[in-house]
Write a structure and sequence with these properties.
3 copies of one chain form a homotrimer. By secondary structure, the first copy, chain A, is mainly α. Chain A has helices at 2-29, 34-56, 66-85, 90-114, 119-140, 146-149, 154-170, 175-195. In chain A, helix 1 crosses helix 2 (34-56), helix 1 packs parallel to helix 5 and helix 4 (90-114) packs across helix 7 (154-170). Residues 208-212 of chain A have low confidence and may be disordered.
Chain lengths: 212, 212, 212
């Protein structure tokens, strides 16, 4: 039980670091000053979970948890250091973003299950937790959210979350194995999608209709 | 009484379908993949009501209502089918958007009245419910919200909502007639405004002052 | 005690007027119609405080306070009048924006202290109250938030807020003096930063890495 809690805590911290750094890198690219970078890191890291907690009407997780705030601060400092030594960090950013997506999707689903919500709503909460930090980050940077521009992003979150719920109900795999393997599946889908330029079929004509 | 409830339910479902499809069409225009389209549909359909419920501190309506989620899913599928057969859907989108605006404005005002709020706050909640789904949709698509670019949009919502409250307090018209006629008024204002290029007077010089 | 409450009320009203007018001016620049201008004013004035109250899970301040709504309406009308007579209002807008930042930062911190939160969280709430009205305003106008483009903005809020908390705990200055002087400090930092083009050091290479 305690081991399980430690795994969950480690997952939450890693996801927070991953998203904070993805926010910091994106903000540095737009030439924001250090406090601007810190705000984007913060929004990217806690945005999805904040929306989830507001929707669930439970206390917002970081309001009573200074550790999370310190972790985000340190992750932002780390991003400055990484940026200083390693100018070409596309692969790093991609991996962080993918791990954050997997980690936060599972946390969101778990919170939904704890509130006895319908599985469809739980998957929705998982997708919100996983995707909306990055969406808010990109809205603040005034660009179309990465999630809508890149291959198989929300799809990976929804697919991983659905599989997690199916295995939880219809298999005997232990919870920790389930958690870790779903996260790795989401990262794997994202990695293969980007490497081989997978795209979802669009089901509609791609001819431009002009601005409406 | 039961008839009244059925009318309200029908209004809510139609508004949801209208906004979900407006979101789906807009996302398809930006070449989003199916799950991206689904997310935009979802945000457009429930965004305004979600902000309203968070402000009222009541349970967010779709969290405990899987039917709404299924309706949005089906409306998105329907949008794909309509898009496949009818490439020129500007008029359809416009009508959906206008009906959604009217329908949701009235729902928002009703929720404000149920919470015993001041009439001015009720009209504000109606405008938020009617307009913020579309505003969030356009923010996610990284464009200036349609509501601020098009003729007489928020104006129609505020005017219709104010009239609804006035008639409710100072006339003997039945509630259902009041509801339906206010919605039709909002759609009518929007339609005439677009057809005859009505614009609100601006009350200020239109000379550009440059970017600040 | 009553004097202190009156000062706090005056601060809140002035901050509301300042942010509402900054929103109105920005919306007029984008040629919005009067109701569009009103919505932007409203969001700029109450946006930061609304997010703060949702995070704290306390009643959203303007929902039960029609006075605030009327003040925003009058501030918007005032902005139209000012715009009519004074076409070059850059300095006015800048001063309003800076005062709003200072005023709202302190209000946010006070609400955090009332809820017995950790000082770091209080400074975060102050920054959210001070900055997110302007951030939401700029998101609605589809531009990169001013806060990230202009010199020493969030920095002034965070610095002023931190000093306020330090002096509150480690000095014997009266509360009112503390309040007013912190606000003036934030305005001073902003004014000097803009006048002398202060910039935070960036701590990273400013060479472009291209769009990711």
């Amino acid at each position: 039980m305690e081991f399980q809690q430690n795994i969950s805590l480690a997952i939450e911290l890693l996801g927070t670091i991953a998203f904070a750094m993805s926010g910091a890198f994106a903000a540095m690219q737009k030439r924001f000053d250090p406090f601007g970078v810190l705000i984007i890191s913060f929004v990217a890291a806690v945005g999805g979970g904040t929306i989830r907690d507001l929707l669930l009407d439970v206390p917002v997780f970081w309001m009573y948890d200074v550790i999370i705030c310190l972790v985000i601060f340190l992750a932002t400092v780390l991003a400055f250091i990484v940026k200083y030594f390693d100018k070409n960090f596309r692969v790093t950013l991609f991996l962080f973003d993918s791990f954050g997506l997997g980690l936060f999707t599972i946390i969101g689903i778990q919170k939904g299950l704890n509130a006895d919500l319908h599985p469809i709503i739980c998957v929705t909460l998982g997708t919100i937790t996983g995707c909306f930090g990055g969406i808010l980050r990109d809205i603040l940077l005034n660009r179309i959210p990465l999630i809508f521009r890149k291959e198989i992003y929300a799809t990976a979150s929804i697919a991983g979350g659905t599989l997690f719920l199916l295995l939880l109900n219809f298999s005997t795999v232990t919870y920790t194995v389930l958690q870790v393997s779903t996260i790795l599946l989401i990262v794997l889908i994202r990695t293969l999608a980007v490497k081989y330029h997978w795209q979802m079929p669009k089901f509609y004509s791609t001819r431009s209709d002009g601005e409406m």
